[in-house]
């Protein structure tokens, strides 16, 4: 979708006009809505714009997840800073996207709006981004979960009840390849599957 022109040699190019139109529309709309990753762009202004749109969409997604939890009977908190839990920045930093809790069971949720993976390359790339290893997109979440599990009293002070079980959850906006991987350090569910999970 990003490269609809195929160079046969130095002077010949193969393309399909309709596909070029689809590709152009895809790039413009995905950039406008902030659906593409900042690494996709090179200019400082475009990275800033995409970052802002990602933050706005991410907050909206977090709030919709919290609303879904509460509709299922699970009270929820949105974007809880680790400083509120008194975690040292060197051990766990940032915010927990959503904390959902009920009868001593607590879900520590990391929320991600992910694009559909359309090719083998995109599937591999997406799987590689969420391994829970140093510096990837799941690493900070796993550090936060580890710290909360090690300090349940701090969590109890925030949610108002003693946690008996603290579960890690990665919630995606749609069905994506990471949901079918068997060696991930956290459970992965799509937004649509969340209510069924909480009901169980």
Walk me through this protein's architecture.
With 200 residues, the chain is of the alpha/beta class. It has a domain at 63-199: Trna Endonuclease, Chain: A, domain 1 (3-Layer(aba) Sandwich), CATH 3.40.1350. The protein is 42% helix and 19% strand. The chain is built from 6 helices and 7 strands, in the order ββααβββαααββα. It has helices spanning 17-33, 44-71, 120-129, 139-150, 152-159, 191-199; strands at residues 6-7, 13-14, 76-81, 95-102, 105-112, 165-172, 187-190. The strands form 2 sheets. The protein has a 5-stranded mixed β-sheet, sandwiched between helices. A two-stranded antiparallel ribbon has the order 1-2. Strand 1 (6-7) and strand 2 form a beta hairpin. The relative contact order is 0.12. The model has no long low-confidence stretch (mean pLDDT 86).
Q: Rounded to an integer, what's the Rg over CA atoms?
A: 20 Å
Q: Tally the helices: what do you get?
A: 6
Strand content: 15-25%
What is the SS-derived class?
A: alpha/beta
Helix proportion of residues, in percent? 40-55%
Number of E-type strands: 7
Taking all residues together, what is the mean pLDDT? 86
* Shape designation: elongated
Named CATH architecture of the domain at 63-199: 3-Layer(aba) Sandwich
Give the class-level CATH name of the domain at 63-199: Alpha Beta
Query: Could you give a short account of the major beta sheet?
Result: 5 strands, mixed
Terminal-residue CA separation: 40 Å
């Amino acid at each position: 979708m990003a490269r609809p022109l195929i160079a046969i040699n130095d002077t010949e190019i193969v393309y399909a006009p309709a596909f070029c139109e689809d590709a152009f529309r895809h790039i413009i709309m995905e950039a406008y809505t902030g659906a593409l990753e900042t690494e996709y762009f090179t200019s400082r202004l475009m990275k800033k714009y995409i970052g802002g749109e990602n933050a706005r969409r991410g907050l909206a997604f977090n709030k919709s997840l919290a609303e879904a939890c509460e509709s299922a009977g699970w009270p929820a908190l949105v974007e809880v800073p680790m400083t509120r839990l008194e975690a040292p920045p060197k051990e766990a930093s940032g915010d927990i996207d959503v904390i959902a809790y009920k009868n001593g069971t607590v879900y520590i949720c990391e929320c991600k709006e992910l694009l559909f993976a359309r090719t083998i390359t995109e599937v591999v790339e997406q799987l590689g981004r969420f391994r829970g290893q140093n510096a990837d997109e799941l690493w900070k979440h796993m550090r936060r979960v580890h710290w909360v599990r090690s300090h349940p009293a701090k969590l109890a002070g925030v949610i108002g009840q003693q946690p008996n079980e603290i579960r890690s959850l990665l919630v995606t906006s749609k069905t994506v390849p990471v949901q079918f991987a068997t060696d991930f350090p956290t459970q992965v569910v799509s937004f649509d599957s969340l209510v069924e999970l909480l009901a169980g």
